[in-house]
Write a structure and sequence with these properties.
This protein is mostly helical and 126 residues long. It contains four helices and no strands. The mean pLDDT is 82. Its main location: membrane. Keywords: Cell cycle, Cell division, Cell membrane, Coiled coil, Membrane, Transmembrane, Transmembrane helix. Belongs to the FtsL family. It comes from Alkalibacillus salilacus.
Length: 126
Amino acid sequence: MALEEVRSYHVQEPVQPTRRQDDQHTPQQPPVKKPWFTKGEKVIYICGILIIAVMATFVVNFSSSVDSLNRDVEQLDSQLTEVRTQNDSLHADVQELSNPNRILTIAEENGLNIRHAEVKQASSMP
């Protein structure tokens, strides 16, 4: 038994490190959470989003300007077609009214006497 008693004295127990009193009084700081994005990345992302927003605004503004110009062009085209139709109608009226027989008839009704004269139509000036 003596051997067992000796062995029990020689068994080394793990030595626990002794803490200083200073270590006991310092509060533990909470672990620092790593942010998803760094400050530089945030600035870059915000600038990118602002640039995209400004570009989208310009595209929408340009698109609305083009759309209003297209409507104006279509309106002018329809007015042009209407004026051309009126011009064709008026040109046909001029051709009808400039008939030499009609002019002679009106002249005779107003007392013009034409004796053996040839009536010629003057060419129109361009």
